[in-house]
Design a protein that fits this description.
By secondary structure, the protein is mainly beta. The protein is built from five helices and 37 strands. The strands form six sheets. It has a 24-stranded antiparallel beta sheet that branches.
Length: about 700
C-alpha cells in the first residue's frame, strides 16, 4: 500500500493578448512561462514561446475537417505515424521511435495520465469522439517531461470541455453520428456552475460492426507449429473482427482550491487477428476497461504555490476467444512447461482450443510539488511523485491441455498467463528552475531522479533555452534525457508460446538534442522548423524467432520537421507539415548498422478549410506516408507508401445552434496497411478503405 505523503507544486500564469504591443507581449510571455501543467504543455495562446516542440489542435477546427476521433486527430501531427499488432492495439509512433513498443508516448486527459499498466498503451482512448475534446496539445520529444512524468518520445494532453476560461466558451451539447461499418455514436456534455463550485459531466456510447480482410494468418508461417507438429495447413484467410463497443462517463468537479477528476471507460473490441495469431471467430472479444479517480489541491500563498494530487486507477485485460482452430495438433504444453521431465504426450484439439484470460491492475499514486516565486527572475519547483502498480486479480482458463477437450479448465493457480504477484513501486524526485535571464532570454533546467523496486532509471537532466529576438522570431535549444520502464506485457507473461517476459529488463533510455525556429507572421499564422537527434539505448524487442523480451537494440534517430499554419484568403485556414526521419540501429554488442525497420522516412499532412459563407464550410485532408523497410530477418518486400484524401461539408445553423456535417474518408480507396511482425500475417494489417460519416451536433 502506498503511503500518501504531502508536500507541493505547480506553476501558474496568464494568457497573452497576441495583438498587444511587443513590449507588453514579452512581459506577458514572461508571466505565461510560469504556467506549467503535469506534461509541460503550456499552450493557451503562447505555445510558440514555450520550451518544447509543440503542436496544438483546436477541437472545433478538427470538427470542421470531419475528424471523428482522437486517432484521426493525432494522424495530423508532424512526425506521427500509426502502428498496430495482432490484438489491434493501436499506437502513435513519434519520429520512428521503437515501433514495437508501447508507452513511448504518454496520454493525459485533463492532466491525468491514462496509459494502461498491462501494455502501457492507450489504444482504448483513441476512439474518443472529437466533440469531447476542446484542445489537443502534442509535445514531441522527451523534453515534454516535468513534475515526475517521463514521456520517452512525446506526450499528448487532451483538454476536455471541463476546462473553463472566459476566453474559451464551453456550451452544453448533444452529438449523434452514423457512418460506415454500422457506426453509431451518441454523446452529451453538461456543465453546472454555482458560486465557487463547477461541475462538468460527459458521456458517450459508440459501436460498430467493422471487419477487415486479413490473411493468411500466422499459422501459415508456423505459429503453433513445432515439437514435430506441422499446423500450417490450418491457416485461414478471411475477415478479422475489429468491431468495438464503448461507453464512457467523465466527471470533473472544482470547489474553491479542491478538484476531483474521474473517468470510466468500458471498451470492448473484437479479437482482431487472434491472440495466438489464428484468425478468430466474429464473436471473440477483448475487453480493456479502465477508470480513475484523482483528488487535487492547488493553492497560492504569498510567493508559494502548492499542488497536491492523489489518485487510484484500475486497468483490466480480459480476453475470451477461440485461440486455435479445429484440428490443432500439439504437445501437452502444460506438462512440458510445468514438469519438463514428464513424458511428452501429443494432444489433438479436435474442436479447437478456447481460452479466457483476465488480469486486473491497480495503480495508486500521489504527488506533491512546491513552487517558490520569491527570487527575482526565478521560479523554483521541487517535489516528488510516488506510484504503486500491482496486479490485484488474475484468472486463466484454457481447453484441456492433456486431453484436447474444448471445455475450459481453470489453470489460474497451476498455469497462469501472467504473474499474479506482479508489483512495482516507483519513487520520483524532481527539481526545476525557471530563470528569466532577460526580457528576451529564458532558461528552464532541472532533473528527475527515479528509483523503482526493479531497475532504477536514475538521474535524468533537462535544460531548455528560449530566445525571443522579437515578437516574430523565436529560437529554442533543448537537451533532455528520459526513459521508458518495461510494461507488464514485457515483464510478466508466463506459459505463452509467443510472448515470454523478463523482470530483469532495463528501462529504455534516450538522450535528445533539439533545435527549433518559429517565425510568426500574425497571431494565427506561423512557420515552425525543428531539428532533432535522438540517441536511444536498450530498446526492448521480441520476435517470433525469439519470443523472450530483451534489451536488444541501440538506435540513433535524426530528422527535421516543418509545420505551417496560415491563410490563403480571409475566409479560410491552411495547415501543412512535412517530416523526415532517418538513422540506424545496432544490435547490442554489434557494430553493424541496421536500417530502420517499419519506419516511414517521409510523412506529409495537409488540410484546408474554406468558409463559403457563415453557414457552410468545405474542407479537405490529405496524408502521405512513405514506404517502410522490413526487419532484418523479414524477407518480404518493403511496405509500399500510400496517400489518402478526405473531404467534409459542414452546415452551421447559428439561429438554433446546431451543425450537420458529412465527411468521406479515403475518397480514392487507397490501400492502407500497417506492418505486421515477421512470420505472422504475411499481407500485413489492412486498414479501412473508403468510408463516410454523418454528424449532428446541437449546443445549448
Amino acid at each position: 500500500m502506498l503511503n500518501f505523503l504531502s508536500s507541493s507544486s505547480l506553476l501558474l500564469a496568464c494568457s497573452v493578448n497576441l495583438n498587444a504591443q511587443s513590449d507588453d507581449i514579452l512581459a506577458s510571455i514572461t508571466q505565461d512561462m510560469q504556467y506549467f501543467n503535469s506534461v509541460a504543455t503550456i499552450t493557451k495562446q503562447n505555445e510558440h514561446y514555450q520550451p518544447y516542440i509543440i503542436s496544438v489542435f483546436k477541437g472545433k477546427e478538427l470538427e470542421d475537417l470531419g475528424v471523428s476521433n482522437l486517432k484521426e486527430a493525432l494522424q495530423l501531427v508532424p512526425g506521427v505515424d500509426m502502428a498496430t499488432d495482432n490484438f489491434n492495439n493501436q499506437t502513435p509512433i513519434f519520429r520512428g521511435s521503437n515501433t514495437q513498443a508501447y508507452g513511448q508516448t504518454k496520454l493525459f486527459i485533463d492532466d491525468v495520465l491514462v496509459n494502461n499498466v498491462f501494455s502501457d498503451s492507450y489504444s482504448e482512448y483513441l476512439g474518443m469522439p472529437i466533440e469531447m475534446i476542446k484542445r489537443i496539445e502534442v509535445v514531441r520529444g522527451p523534453g515534454s517531461k516535468t513534475n515526475g512524468v517521463n514521456a520517452y518520445a512525446g506526450s499528448i494532453n487532451i483538454i476536455t470541455y471541463a476546462e473553463d476560461f472566459k476566453d474559451f466558451e464551453s456550451n452544453d451539447k448533444v452529438v449523434f453520428k452514423y457512418g460506415s461499418y454500422d457506426y453509431r455514436m451518441a454523446e452529451f456534455i453538461k456543465k453546472f456552475q454555482a458560486d465557487n463550485f463547477d461541475a462538468t459531466i460527459d458521456f458517450y456510447y459508440q459501436e460498430d460492426n467493422k471487419e477487415l480482410y486479413a490473411g493468411p494468418d500466422g499459422y501459415s508461417q508456423g505459429s503453433m507449429s513445432g515439437f514435430g507438429h506441422d499446423n500450417t495447413g490450418l491457416s485461414q484467410t478471411g475477415y478479422a473482427p475489429v468491431w468495438m463497443r464503448d461507453y464512457s462517463l467523465g466527471v470533473n468537479l472544482k470547489y474553491y482550491d479542491f478538484t476531483l477528476k474521474g473517468r470510466m471507460l468500458e471498451h470492448t473490441q473484437g479479437s482482431a487477428y487472434g491472440i495466438n495469431l489464428s484468425l478468430p471467430q466474429d464473436s471473440d472479444r477483448l475487453k480493456t476497461p479502465t477508470g480513475y479517480i484523482e483528488l487535487g489541491y492547488d493553492k497560492t500563498i504569498n510567493d508559494f504555490e502548492i499542488d497536491i494530487k492523489a489518485g487510484v486507477k484500475f486497468d483490466t485485460f480480459d480476453s475470451k476467444a477461440k485461440l486455435a482452430p479445429d484440428g490443432l495438433e500439439f504437445i501437452d504444453y502444460y506438462q512440458f512447461s510445468t514438469n519438463p521431465s514428464h513424458p511428452i504426450n501429443d494432444v489433438n484439439f479436435t474442436n479447437g482450443m478456447y481460452g479466457e484470460h483476465k488480469a486486473r491492475q491497480r495503480t495508486l499514486y500521489q504527488s506533491s510539488y512546491l513552487t517558490y516565486n520569491g527570487f527575482d527572475n526565478h521560479a523554483i519547483t521541487t517535489g516528488y511523485r510516488v506510484l504503486q502498480e500491482k496486479t490485484v486479480k488474475m484468472t486463466s482458463k484454457l481447453s484441456n491441455w492433456s486431453t484436447g477437450d474444448a471445455a475450459l479448465v481453470d489453470y489460474t493457480e497451476t498455469f497462469p498467463f501472467v504473474d499474479k504477484n506482479a508489483k512495482r513501486d516507483t519513487y520520483i524526485f524532481s527539481l526545476q528552475d525557471e530563470f528569466q535571464y532577460s526580457e528576451n532570454l529564458s532558461f528552464i533546467y532541472g532533473f528527475n531522479y527515479e528509483a523503482t523496486s526493479h531497475k532504477d532509471a536514475g538521474f535524468e537532466p533537462r535544460i531548455s533555452m528560449v530566445y525571443q529576438r522579437n515578437y516574430n522570431n523565436i529560437y529554442k535549444a533543448i537537451y533532455s534525457r528520459a526513459h521508458r520502464n518495461p510494461s507488464w506485457q514485457e515483464m510478466y507473461p508466463l506459459n505463452n508460446h509467443s510472448r515470454q517476459g523478463s523482470d530483469e529488463l532495463d528501462p529504455e533510455k534516450v538522450d535528445a538534442f533539439e533545435l527549433a525556429y518559429v517565425r510568426k507572421f500574425t497571431s494565427d499564422s506561423y512557420l515552425q522548423t525543428n531539428l532533432f537527434y535522438l540517441m536511444n539505448q536498450d530498446q526492448i524487442f521480441n520476435t517470433s524467432f525469439d519470443p523472450v523480451y530483451k534489451n536488444v537494440l541501440d538506435t540513433d534517430l535524426y530528422g527535421v520537421e516543418f509545420e505551417y499554419a496560415g491563410h490563403i484568403l480571409s475566409s479560410d485556414k491552411l495547415y501543412l507539415n512535412y517530416s523526415y526521419v532517418d538513422g540506424h540501429s545496432n544490435l547490442k554488442g554489434s557494430s553493424e548498422n541496421l536500417d530502420l525497420a517499419n519506419v516511414a522516412h517521409h510523412l506529409a499532412k495537409i488540410y484546408y478549410i474554406y468558409n463559403i459563407n457563415n453557414t457552410l464550410s468545405l474542407s479537405s485532408v490529405g496524408k502521405y506516408v512513405g514506404s517502410k523497410e522490413r526487419m532484418p530477418e523479414d524477407t518480404r518486400e518493403k511496405l509500399p507508401a500510400y496517400a489518402t484524401l478526405d473531404a467534409a461539408l459542414k452546415y452551421k445553423n447559428r439561429m438554433y445552434d446546431f451543425d450537420v456535417s458529412l465527411s468521406v474518408k479515403n475518397i480514392f480507396d487507397a490501400t492502407v496497411k500497417y506492418p505486421s511482425a515477421p512470420r505472422t500475417y504475411t499481407e500485413d494489417y489492412l486498414q479501412e478503405g473508403r468510408n463516410f460519416l454523418i454528424t449532428l451536433k446541437k449546443e445549448f
